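Kindly go through the entry underneath: sequence plus fold tokens. Please state briefly how this chain folds according to its tokens.
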Amino acid sequence: MGSVPAWARLYVACVVAGALVCLAPVPGVHVPWWAVGLLAALYAGCEHLTSGGSGGCPPRWHTPVLLAGAFLLPPAVAALVAVPGALLARVEQRPRGLRRVWRAARLGLAVWAASRVHGALAGRDAVAQPHFPDALVPVGAAVLVFCAVLTALDGGILALAERVPVRNAWRGLFPRSLAPAAVHGLAGLMMAVLWRSHYGPVAALLVLLPMYVSCWVFEQYHRERAAHQATIRALVQAVDIKDGYTRGHSERVGRASRMIACELGMDDARIEVLRFAGILHDVGKLGVPTRLLRKNGPLTPEERRVIELHPEYGHEMVRGIGFLGEARLAILHHHERLDGGGYPYGLTGDQIPECARVVAVADAFDAMTSTRCYRRARPVADALEELERCAGTQFDPEMVEALARALGRHGWHPAVTADGDDQRGNVPPQSAPLRAEAGS
């Protein structure tokens, strides 16, 4: 909604008008204004915590407050709970005023509709004297309506303001919102039941405490993960700048390593570590003189020995990065061969860590299926045939078979790793270190 089209502004105006109609007071209905004020203040405080800089915090963790208001209050005043927080929330993108009004109107309409459905199904009586099988039916219906209203409104704004094709604007919105809303609905029900019990509103507010703690944990996880990704990205960019020959190679080896790990049935945490290993397998090139990486012509035996030190350089560079785990061993040993003819230590068979055997196959496969300045990429079938020919001597047959199965299921899209007109960043064919071209 940066530059908002006229039709989108009209749409927002219509939603705001609908919300104002829903907020109109109903004569003869008792309104507990103190409860409205307390819930509105609580929601505004939660909104401030979310928008006040905790970038990893889930933006809907305070939805239970809105749903508790829908379960406790008449529809017109329940909709008011969302308004102050939405209007006072921090907004990064322009136009800020329009975005605040839009958010307040859509939440007000959704809460109003949820409260109407909940009340129509005698949900407030079930909250006052809870019988949980009976209380869950109106709550479930209210949650479905809450999600449906938000989905309908959000799809419209995507189509009009963000110019998303109409056939795609609503796709997937409802299923994605339903599971979180169901959890928030149960939390809102707990708040409402405690609020109406002899423990009172203070006990109801305690329901938010575990949600806030989970939000804090979620935020710490995302901060740590962002730091991990930034570290890896910086190292890979440094390698790509120094050795244009392998530009993009690291990311593809990470992708192929992940495919092999998935095919082997490894758990998610280990799959992620194998992906890191593939991405960083050549980080040791930062310790190799640039003139050797960019040399045009055959390498001398001495120059080859220097380049073959890059696995050890890489291991030293990352040994202090704890989150990499066994990926550090893959970086050190990805040029070992099963027959003992590899480097740096000439390990054989099972002496080579499993993670290194995975990366070795992924590295060789991408090297063969990527276009280099001196030759075109091999077809995937030819590369697999070469890997199978070298299985048992250079590569682990189990890893080769896993890659073949993964490629049969998902395919592969090789890419150019070096431009044909950038001759400085390429190694001639005479210097390819392994028969099956185990990368670099």
About this structure: The radius of gyration is 30 Å. The chain is about 65% helix and 0% strand. The chain has two domains: 6-206, 223-431.
